[in-house]
UniProtKB/TrEMBL annotation:
EC number: 1.5.1.2
Compartments it resides in: Cytoplasm
Origin species: Acidianus manzaensis
UniProt: NADPH binding residues: N52
Domain Pyrroline-5-carboxylate reductase dimerisation as annotated: residue spans: 150-252
Name of this chain's protein: Pyrroline-5-carboxylate reductase
UniProt pathway: Amino-acid biosynthesis; L-proline biosynthesis; L-proline from L-glutamate 5-semialdehyde: step 1/1
Amino acid sequence: MRIAILGSGKIGYAILKGLKENDIAEYLIGTGRSEATLNKIKNLGVEATSDNNYAVRNADYIIISVKPQHFMSLIKTIDPESWKEKTVISVMAGIKISTIKKLIEAREIYRAMPNINALIGKSTTAIAEGRNESVDKIFKSIGSTYWIQEDLLDVWTALIGSGPAFVAELVDAFVLGAVNCGMPRELAYNTVLDMIKSTSDMLSKSNSHPLDLRDNVTTPAGTTIKGLLVMESEGIKAGIIKTIEASYKRSIDLGKDMQNNLIS
Ligand SMILES: NC(=O)c1ccc[n+]([C@@H]2O[C@H](COP(=O)([O-])OP(=O)(O)OC[C@H]3O[C@@H](n4cnc5c(N)ncnc54)[C@H](OP(=O)(O)O)[C@@H]3O)[C@@H](O)[C@H]2O)c1
């Protein structure tokens, strides 16, 4: 595969790194504007350029990973003819495939939504829509892939895109809880991470509902039920459901703003 990444910032760089480390591309090139970004790409041992048109012409698979508000200025740097016969994958949040199709005439267009865990090769990436084995292989180089309908990308963005930030907050809350009861901070931090990882493994290995695990731990009149009572009365579960809902609605609104700006 001949692959170009247009915009090698946090996500673009992570994809370049995954592709390079897994030796997936027969040709790989990353683009950027600043010297700092171009040097970062070169330091990976990957060809770097600020010439987007050159990158598009030399590749078959083009990943667009600039910020959505920079999409129009990026397009202006590329000859419309250069997109023909290319497979384009946008990781830009909020810009629909139908909108990209109006602006670029490519062979096929997909959207992918990775998350920041791509930086350690552990993204959980949604790809819309259909199925393309080469595109799947590209995103498997930074973690796991799920092919979904495009209309699920807003909830995906809330749950999987913003999710690492929400989990980081929960981790901090657990750690503060332990520190409050006298545990040294570093010990609390390491053990909370271990406990979350192993609970996640336990849940994914058992075929049962998460509440079965909860009930297994909950001894009558024991420690867990006392904690659960506080979780319930403080509305922690409802708070998390509303957190995802608020993030989901924001994703929809941002998408609408973006569409209006691009089309107007
Ligand atoms: N961060 C996330 O967790 C995440 C998750 C899923 C999807 N996304 C999507 O991924 C995209 C990138 O996000 P990010 O967080 O990686 O942003 P970022 O770190 O700001 O990276 C954007 C990159 O685009 C480059 N760029 C801008 N205009 C360019 C142009 N005309 N030619 C070449 N390069 C250009 C910038 O280059 P310079 O550095 O040289 O200025 C920068 O390196 C966004 O559309 C976002 O919606 C992000």
